[in-house]
Amino acid sequence: MQKPLQKLDPMPKLSRWQILGPFPAGMREQDFGADPLEAYGGIHNISYSETARYPSELSDGGLVGWQMLESHGSTVGPLVFPSTRWSMNQLALGWAVNQFQAWAVISFSLEREKSFRVQFHSIGDFYIDQDLYSGDWYNLKTTAHVVHLAKGEHTLRVRVVNEIRIFGGSTPPKSIFEYFWEEIESSIPAIAIEQQVNMPDIIDSRFAGHLCSIAVQNVLQKADLRVVAIQITTQSTDIAINASLRNAGEEAAIMPGQIRQIPFSISTVEKLPPTLSSIFIIHVTVEIHNENHTLPGVSFEIHHKKAENDAFRITFEDQDKSIQYAMVRSPKTLTFSPSTPPPILVALHGAGVETSSPWWTGALSRSEKAWASLLLLIRLLDRDEIEYAHLIQYYVYRPFTQPEEVHGDSIGTDQVCLMSLELLMLWSKICIFEGHSNGGQGAWYLGTHFPDRAIAVFAAAGYTKIQDYVPFTGWIGGSHSDPWLRGILESSIAEYNNDLHVSNLAGIPIHALMGGDDDNVPPLHTRKYARLANEYVADPEYVKVTEVPGEGHWWNKILDNEIYSTFIEQHVENPKDVINELEDFTVTLINPSGSGSKGGIFVEQLSTPYRLGRIHVKIVKDDQNVSTWYLTTNNIRRFRFTDQVLQRFSNIRVDGSIIASTSLHDGVFLEKSDGEDWKTVTHVSGLDSTNHGPLHRIYESRGPLVIVCPRGNDYYYHKALQIAHDWNLYGNGDAQIIMPAELGDLPNANIVFLGGPEENELTSMFLRDSLSDISITKQELRVGGHIYSTRGSGIIFHQLWRQYHMAIIIAGIDQEGFTSAVQLMPKRTGLIISDWVVTGPNMKWQGVGGIQAA
């Protein structure tokens, strides 16, 4: 169970804030700069003034000034702007105009040097003096930054952005932020973070898994440390719970200021009776300079569950070696024929909901025969957008297909829970996708992107895509950017445009549910889905839509009612053979890395990346029931047929080319180069579709994340800490920070290189051995035949690394250029960053308009 960080009396006292704003801001635009004040020197060079005014179209008269705001405790706000008529502004831009930005500034003094753990919640970033830190957008309260401050005067500058998707679209907007500020005791080298403990539930007196993790933060200023032991105690002294670390060695080092997730295994010989205390105390021992220190214990509440009644928590190792969890709920009937098992119900929750929350686990009607997997909604970058891509296999299927990772030796074979979970491994590809709100969007996403895994979709109050939910119309950069370049950038997130992929829903039973008075995700989103899907199958009533008059975004029994139960049980009892019933359909995709097969056709590569790819399929049978497949392609370079359909056809024509069906078998692709006909090829060794695509794919590629930082450069090291922090906060992931001298060979991992070849010798080594037309010096950036030498120019780009991994290089011709580039390292979804971007100094105020090339 996650608990918020303890609210202490803030140190120092921060009560009288200076507020400057509001200024326009676009959805997800902040990381591009796009601060209008930068045109006048920036917030660091602007002081409070009762008379100074700055242009802003949001307020009457077109000018805004400073105001004072008294705060109480650790909460600041709401920020109120009397000269702004929000309802009037909405006449032009709708609720997207409520996406404003402002600055909150305050100074304080310290009588001596001190160290703190600091975090700001409900904001994106903040400055302490000149150092930029990442805030906690979603108020998760699971991380804090270690800050060492000298004696004297200091200034906080908080960039406040009213994120409508997080805070809602109220008029006027009520923007509030909080902060956590805790002094670090000098005797403590590290802190075990109670809010980041992950352990399985107890099922019928056994752990429902043996994999666990706890986050530990190094609060020292210079020395790194390692966790060398973990001990678990309870009030029951007669029961021993054994804990053993899973990682050791140099790769387990925790650098100064860093938070790392420490994986460990648990086991016990005795059964765990219901009378056993549910509060476990975890004691972590760290080693610094060959000396051991045991940290204060942290508590974690373990829940005793019954598999036949309760939703319970299982744990498993993810592709980056971090420990994740899912909630599992058994059906009412636990017996079934292994030859015809029911599907898995994949249930996705809305933004801001904890997967293990009883409010969510108890919200779904229990199926008669199907197991439900309630997933950790966001593992990748964000709390309100799903980017499963190929990781779907880890979140939907792996907990059930890797039983040794689900239960280890913890659940006895006589347990009904274990029996049922092992039966689940027999059919890892049969699912009903369902969800509410952002989870409803997720159900649409999984249905449109992994259609051959779906036998049905039930989506409640799901929006179509991020650009429709809160339009990007308010972007500052839109007034400065080249439309062609902007199109390239926007294409980097087009793979998540569910409406663009609706053709893939053909043949899948769909029921959509929403409240008629939903003002959070208005009903038009669901209606749009239905219209598009109906058009593709030429059936005006194909998608079943239930719009409940008078209901809003959520109501009791929204996923526990007759409509829901009837639909689910119908397709559990009689799952439709969608693939074999298709006769006329269209496969649509933008990025093969984030798409599965449709109708048994899996696209491996597009001719032009980020452009729409389509295959129209028409199946014709002759009098002898012999099938001929006619395929017409657009922007497709290579694809294959899955095992599910290899026996369905006798003849194949692709764009007029006749393909011998006997030549198609597992591992064979159809490929077409420019000016050539389609031909069969075997899979090229070393080429893998999962590590292609925009920069954020590094979080979805296989292997851990390693950040390579130049030695002796405090500024670059600070940025390395921010990248690691963001992956931990928004992705629940773990990262290793290393210096070049600590590494002989480059690791078999996903790597982020900070600094160009002249600053980071490992960047030089990597680029020297890579096929790249990008070169970096302190005088210029060269991309192909183009040279960028303006001061403040930076670059961020990715390269393939070995077969399954990615590498990202972030550099600049000076520190200003590096700063603008490193800010584009993806934190959350919706950031329009392609696979390479050349940044420029004008991004500070022009946003994407200051990008020089992409």
TrEMBL record:
Coiled coil: none
Keywords assigned by UniProt, alphabetized: Signal
InterPro entries assigned to the protein according to its UniProt record, in alphabetical order: AB_hydrolase_fold, Plant_Biomass_Hydrol_Est
Protein name: Peptidase S9 prolyl oligopeptidase catalytic domain-containing protein
Biological classification of the source: Eukaryota, Fungi, Fungi incertae sedis, Mucoromycota, Mucoromycotina
